[in-house]
Amino acid sequence: MADSIRDLLFGGVSTGRELVEAIEPRRSFDDVVLPAPTLRALNHALALVRKHDLIFQQWGLAERHSSGLGLAFHFAGPPGTGKTICAEALAYALDKKLLVVRYAELESRWVGQTSKHVATVFRAAARQDAVLFFDEADAIAGRRFTSISVAYEREANAIVNVLLHELEGFAGVVIFATNLAANIDPAFERRIRTHILFEMPDVEERERIWAVQLHARKTPLAKDVDFRALAEAYPRSGGDIKNAVLKAAQIATVEPGPDSEKRIHQRHFIQGMAEVMAAENVMSQSLFDEAGASGPLAGMMDRLAEGQEEVRGELGVLAERFEALEHKVRSLNDHYTAGRVELERIHSQALESLTSGRRAKDRILVYLIAVSAVLAAAALVVSLLRL
Asked: Cα–Cα distances in Å, from 332 out to 1, 59, 327, 329?
């Protein structure tokens, strides 16, 4: 009943929405170029998964340890260094599906609902025997607040607590990927079996990354393409190189001339990487640069930030009050149900008593008829004797 009131006032949350995206892995470790230490760490992680049954079942450690039986891995490193591809490759090597958590669906505006969603995704992974993947995990597993002043801070702490609890009892494989490992709550350090650092590729690795982005037979390359020169000129991540290759192909296709004669030249790769770097510079611009920090815009942004904090606080209070209202509605509903059951019981007893009274009345009537019949018979006998 409380859920109905909430849905009526604010619009309900669809129960059919998917909290995870199920992916059938297609990419393997052969599709990613990694530094040797990272590749060794991944091979070690894969060996741990494959020997999990030996350690906990055959060697009996599961009988001594009731929790922490799963395998949690932490992939940490800058964006574009291959963390997401390696999560898919690990699932591919294990012949399991990859369940990618969808934060847009996981987060809920209702107090306590996000924690329930966290528990749901772990149950889904256990049911499907899939690898559970939290990409950008610092969005949900961030450091807990030490002093709580507003409701959303308490809610964030509760979510991390539930995540830690579910991780402790999960017997499958979980992967957390982060760009900023320092933002992860320290409690995860003990519960995560292996931490793997994804570093920026060196020159040799970058040269290979440039080459593997293109089809060996179908992609038309000009003779002036020099991947080694590109690798030396641009110390970028694999993700940036991928974007530069796609931009280079787009640039080459729009040049004049028949498509059959078009080729991707070195200048196209250079221009593609220049566009990637330019986009990064645009994204790095901030309204809080030192040049404008003392101007009226800075003051306006400060007031806006304060207003956001006040709104968050009010929303937190509103959420607490609505939670209390839901509790009262549930309590009233319970009392109503109990009262209805009691009324049905009394009604049943009354019907039973009425039925019993009718039966007794019928028996008395039968007795009276029988007595009357006996008296009539006796009178008839007496009359006959007198004759």
From this structure: 10, 54, 9, 5
Q: How far apart are CA 280 and CA 238, in angstroms?
A: 15
Residue 364 lies in a domain: no
Domain shared by 90 and 105, yes or no: yes
Which of these three, 170, 197, 224, is where a domain ends?
197
Q: What does the alpha-carbon distance between residue 189 and residue 268 come to, in Å, rounded to a whole number?
A: 44
- My answer on whether 113 and 129 are in the same domain is yes
- The 3-class secondary structure across 133-159, one letter per residue, is EECCHHHCCECCCCCCCCHHHHHHHHH
Backbone phi, psi, residue 143, to 5° = -60, 140
- Nearest in space to 213 (alpha carbons), one of 82, 58, 24: 82
Q: What is the pLDDT of residues 13-66, one digit of tens each?
A: 444 458 889 999 999 888 889 988 999 999 888 888 888 777 767 777 666 665
Low-confidence ranges of the chain (pLDDT < 70): 1-17, 56, 61-69, 108-111, 147, 149-152, 284-320, 357, 360, 371, 385-387
| Cα atoms in the 13 Å half-sphere on the side-chain side of 350 | 6
What pTM does this model have? 0.65
